[in-house]
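Researcher: Let's do a round of design. I'm pasting the structure tokens now; please hold your answer until I've finished.
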């Protein structure tokens, strides 16, 4: 895949970038390794100040950063503004809390003094996706830099200007040159970097094949990885739920980021008794959404990020129909305009045992399933290879307890949509990956948890 800015709303190629050559990559690795030696000695107060400066730059220049995101991957401008603000939030969060998250932890033993201490590991590689091109990177960069590590970013090939802007923000904030560098490289160049002795660990957010490939390369070198992969999150609505609120939230949760979010609600599992009403209300909401130019303030849904994503999504819709699914609305790309536009789509009646029911639909397509009771709802919710998030709606306390304990996922949200929050850990189980980002757990992923015993 070329490293290029291609406007998904028009198909126009704006700018093409040359991938780094081997010797340029070697220089950046040298710089990262050398920087770590000094950077690990900087104080928390210095790092905190730089991270707060980054938050200020993000806030002050959010309009510019949001425009780059919308231009490169098609999210609505208003969503891009919100994303930049969230990046500022995570910078300030770790600037404030990292010193306590990484403070020595005394442990009483028969030593005169014993404790746990958190040392930085070194150079950490981040392989990142295009769908939240700023947020995914800042939620890695903020804890990594606060822990005293240095970062290397291999961003997705369709968001090079986002990747360069992020490295620039971090430098302007005051971090030493080399503390965070963008590598404009293709996916095929990642394994060699993983094998470099200066790179100590890696995190990847993206698809299962990409995660498996990075983890295999890391495994060869006995290096740690964190993987944040795909999801097919269930959105369960039981009879006692507040239906109006559930439908409004279902619409937001499915259409977030033009439908391209790992934690978007993808499978709607509705109790039989309320399913006809849910379907009708959801259809009304979907038909009211405005598709169009993502830069315009009243646009709800912009284009999908690339033509390939549109083709894959449409193929899945066709497979769903061949398997017995019925298209209630949408179901075909918008052919009357350039760009990668796919309309909000609802599909019902997909057989539960069909292979397609297990897949992640990465676009504005809602799969609706009906179930007789909570047992069937939980069984269906768990019947995918994924386990990222789950949203469940009920006003019955017993049902609530069962949903929390029996759903197999990294997060369960009751009467709310799944979202990430710097204060709470984020990550999945099963084929959605392993490890956690955000909160105290996130900053502990890339540190050497050192046991110290002094006699
Ligand atoms: P992708 O193709 O896996 O790309 C993600 C990143 O991995 C890109 O930087 C890509 O580089 C790189 N990559 C691809 N193949 C690779 C390989 N074999 N070795 C090393 N790096 C490789 O993912 P996508 O399809 O763009 O993104 C959508 C997926 O990400 C969905 O499944 C979504 O659910 C998941 N996601 C998960 C989370 C989470 O937190 N769990 C968040 C967002 C997205 P190139 O662009 O150069 O190919």
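Researcher: That's everything. Go ahead.
Model: Designed sequence:
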């Amino acid at each position: 895949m070329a490293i290029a800015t291609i406007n998904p709303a028009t198909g126009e190629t704006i700018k093409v970038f040359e991938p780094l050559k081997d010797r340029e990559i070697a220089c950046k690795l040298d710089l990262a390794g050398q920087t770590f030696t000094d950077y690990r000695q900087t104080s928390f107060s210095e790092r905190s100040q730089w991270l707060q400066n980054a938050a200020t730059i993000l806030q002050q220049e959010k309009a510019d950063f949001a425009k780059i995101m919308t231009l490169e991957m098609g999210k609505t401008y208003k969503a891009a503004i919100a994303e930049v603000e969230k990046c500022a939030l995570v910078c300030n969060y770790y600037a404030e809390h990292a010193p306590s998250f990484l403070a020595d932890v005394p442990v009483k033993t028969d030593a005169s003094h014993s404790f746990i201490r958190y040392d930085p590991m070194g150079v950490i590689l981040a392989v990142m996706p295009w769908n939240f091109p700023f947020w995914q990177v800042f939620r890695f960069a903020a804890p990594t830099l606060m822990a005293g590590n240095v970062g290397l970013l291999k961003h997705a090939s369709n968001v090079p200007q986002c990747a360069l802007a992020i490295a620039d923000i971090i430098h302007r904030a005051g971090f030493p040159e080399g503390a965070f560098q963008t590598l404009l490289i293709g996916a095929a160049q990642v394994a060699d970097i993983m094998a470099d002795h200066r790179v100590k660990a890696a995190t990847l957010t993206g698809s299962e094949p990409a995660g498996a490939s990075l983890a295999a390369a890391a495994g060869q070198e006995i290096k740690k990885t964190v993987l944040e992969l795909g999801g097919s999150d269930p959105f369960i609505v039981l009879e006692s739920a507040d239906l109006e609120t559930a439908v409004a939230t279902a619409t937001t949760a499915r259409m977030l980021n033009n439908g391209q979010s790992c934690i978007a609600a993808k499978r709607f599992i509705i109790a039989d008794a309320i399913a006809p009403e849910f379907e009708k209300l959801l259809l009304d909401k979907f038909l009211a959404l405005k598709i169009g130019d993502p830069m315009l303030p009243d646009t709800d849904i912009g284009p999908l990020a690339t033509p390939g994503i549109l083709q894959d999504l449409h193929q899945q819709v066709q497979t769903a129909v061949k398997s017995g699914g019925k298209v209630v609305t949408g179901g075909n790309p918008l052919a009357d305009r350039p760009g990668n536009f796919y309309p909000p789509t609802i599909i019902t009646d997909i057989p539960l045992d069909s292979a397609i029911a297990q897949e992640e639909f990465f676009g504005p397509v809602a799969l609706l399933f009906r179930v007789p009771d909570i047992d069937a709802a939980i069984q269906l919710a768990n019947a995918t290879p994924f386990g990222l998030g789950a949203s469940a709606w009920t006003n019955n306390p017993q049902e609530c307890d069962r949903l929390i304990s029996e759903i197999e996922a990294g997060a369960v949200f009751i009467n709310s949509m799944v979202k990430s929050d710097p204060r709470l850990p984020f990550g999945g189980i099963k084929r959605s990956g392993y490890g956690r980002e955000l909160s105290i757990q996130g900053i502990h992923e890339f540190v050497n948890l050192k046991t110290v015993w002094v006699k």
